Amino acid sequence: MAKVESFELDHNKVKAPYVRLAGTEKHESGAVIQKFDLRFLQPNKDAMPTGVVHTLEHLLAINIRDEITGVIDISPMGCRTGFYMIVWGETPIADVVNGLENVLKKVADYDDVPAMTAKACGNYRDHSLIGAKIYAEQVLNDRISHDPFERVFE
Ligand code: ZN
Hints:
The chain has helices at 5-8, 50-67, 93-107, 129-142, and strands at residues 18-26, 32-39, 71-76, 82-88. By secondary structure, the protein is an alpha+beta fold. The chain has one domain: S-ribosylhomocysteinase (LuxS) (Gyrase A, domain 2, 2-Layer Sandwich).
């Protein structure tokens, strides 16, 4: 059986919101990528409605690359408590937290969801900008920890 990193994490022990380095992969070519667990909500206590996750996915996709160099992908977790982000190279946790906070602060300024059309999106009817604003503000108010198990802010 394949070992899945996130299945090894004890979701009862984490304290959201947080950023966690979920893994570093080194290819024989020398290329390095990292995967980050961007946890917005406490697992098994709360979850974002699908429209909220979807709208935040669009807003993160369009803004996170201005904040963090080398972002390959940022995608929602199926449990709807956060996102995974894959980045080229090695990025300090503090830079990820800072970049994520900056994007979440921008959410309040949006009047429309970017790429909310049948052409650009796979389910353009399932969005919630008001919900995205509420959850973004909640995550900022709760503060994003630099450690998944202890509340650390520097
Ligand atoms: Zn979409």
